[in-house]
Design brief:
Largest sheet: 10 strands, mixed
CATH class of the largest domain: Alpha Beta
Number of helices: 11
Oligomer: single chain
CATH architecture of the largest domain: Alpha-Beta Barrel
Distance between the termini: 9 Å
Length: about 450
């Protein structure tokens, strides 16, 4: 190990992004150094990483379809190619319309069509399906996670896809059948769906597409309707994630569902968003209560940031480290590419993405700091990696370590301060010296 090199990749506010720095070499810990250490404990393993992803909404698809083929290929490679890009292996998309669609739509607007005879996905054939197919061509092992924002209006208590409401009790079965039909039709188009969330933001009544479930309603829907419907269609292996909303209530919602043995038998995991604050400890509690549950961070929007700021990359990395250190096994950005105004969407002028396209400037692409900061994890930590124990002498440096399936180690260090901070990596009784630049993120690749 002594003399073996560490590959160093660094991005910083003042120094650019994805810089390949000179390799650093391990040396023997002859003096048993005590100070300024970042200690790695390779014998301590936590969760297995399932991967990283982002959302391909209709808005993303619309922007991809507006680009010329070269720009479209650049965007898809930048996100999904593990060598040329940052190697995302998941994508999240929507069942029917969401707020980042060009309009509100469902696949069956005929009231009382309980046999779903008028069901069709023609709307998605315009742009969403072509975009998903283009990504799958680049990344054939892509895992697609699908989320409904709302059932058709006629299945809901408020007779609208917007403004909340809930699924009519008399329509729970047809709504489950509708979801299965979506899976069947997408499969016919060459888009196999890996998993589902039961409902996007199950507690939120929004001005856009939304549908509210209580914990009891969500549990019963999974137990009595969705789970059995998937099994009848031979989809027992399709992954069901509950909640798909903010972290502050994940413990209560998980507990209500998992304490029902029959419902729990259908549930693969719980999905969370980051909009109500950090609540990293809630993830730890949920894991301790139900260690078999897979935790997915499925939506982390860059929100209403009007300008390109370095802060967004730091926020992304802080969220990734906090979530993954508390047993999250997959982490998703929200929209992968919006236009210069955060469009298209049909409800609210907002939205920023890790990459932006400016059609006023002939489709010029802007790579935000968030793209690079996410890539410091997703490009180097591979699916199937195991999180490894670590400790550090200062809370000014956030860090996380994984061991890849090939045995190589990846440590990511985040510095959100205005100062350069020294640290000494300690791994298997060997040391290596570093200085973390102000407002920087560093990925270290070493071993086995």
């Amino acid at each position: 190990m002594v003399g073996r090199s560490i590959e160093v990749i660094c991005s910083s506010r003042n120094g650019g992004c994805f810089n390949d720095c000179p390799n650093v070499f391990f040396y023997q810990d002859a003096n048993e150094v005590e100070k300024e250490l970042l200690c790695i404990y390779p014998e301590v393993e936590y969760q297995e990483l399932e991967g990283f992803g982002g959302a391909i909404t209709e808005s993303v698809a619309h922007n991809l379809c507006r680009m010329g083929p070269e720009k479209q290929e650049e965007v898809i490679n930048a996100y999904f190619d593990p060598v040329q890009g940052i190697g995302l292996n998941f994508c999240r998309t929507h069942i029917g319309s969401c707020d980042f669609s060009t309009e509100t739509y469902s696949y069956d607007d005929i009231p009382g069509d309980f046999g779903l005879e008028k069901f069709h996905i023609d709307h998605d054939r315009r742009e969403l399906l072509p975009a998903l197919k283009a990504v799958l061509k680049k990344r054939p092992d892509l895992k697609v996670l699908a989320s409904p924002w709302s059932p058709p209006a006629w299945m809901k208590t408020n007779a609208s896809m917007l403004e909340g409401g809930s699924v009519k009790e008399s329509c729970r079965q047809v709504w489950a059948d509708y979801i299965v039909r979506y899976l069947q039709e997408y499969e016919k188009e060459g888009i196999p769906v890996w998993g589902l969330t039961v409902q996007n933001e199950a507690k939120a009544s929004q001005t856009w597409e939304s549908c509210v479930y209580t914990g009891k309603e969500e549990k019963e829907f999974v137990r009595d309707y969705l789970g059995p419907a998937l099994c009848r269609d031979g989809r027992e292996d399709l992954k069901i994630l509950i909640w798909d909303h903010n972290k502050e209530r994940v413990v209560e919602r998980v507990s209500e569902a998992m304490e029902d043995r029959k419902a729990a038998g259908y549930i693969y995991g719980a999905a969370i968003h980051w909009y109500s604050g950090e609540h990293f400890e809630a993830l730890q509690v949920a894991h301790e209560k139900y260690p078999q549950l897979h935790l997915f961070s499925t939506e982390n929007s860059m929100g209403r940031y009007p300008d390109y700021t370095w802060d967004m990359g730091e926020r992304i990395a802080h969220g990734v480290i906090g979530d993954l250190k508390n047993h999250v096994s997959a982490w998703f950005a929200w929209n992968l590419i919006l236009d210069e105004g955060g469009f298209p969407n049909h409800d609210h002028p907002m939205g920023k993405s890790p990459m932006m396209v400016d059609f006023r400037l002939d489709g010029a692409l802007h790579y935000d700091s968030a793209y690079y900061y996410l890539g410091h994890f997703s490009k180097y930590i591979r699916p199937g990696a195991s999180r490894i124990g670590s400790s550090i002498y200062t809370d000014k440096l956030e860090n996380i370590t994984f061991r890849n399936p090939d045995g190589s180690m990846v440590t990511v260090i985040l510095n959100r301060t205005d100062e350069g901070i020294k640290f000494i990596l300690k791994y298997e009784q060997k040391l290596a010296d570093f200085i973390s630049a102000p407002h920087s993120i560093t990925t270290l690749c070493y071993g086995p």
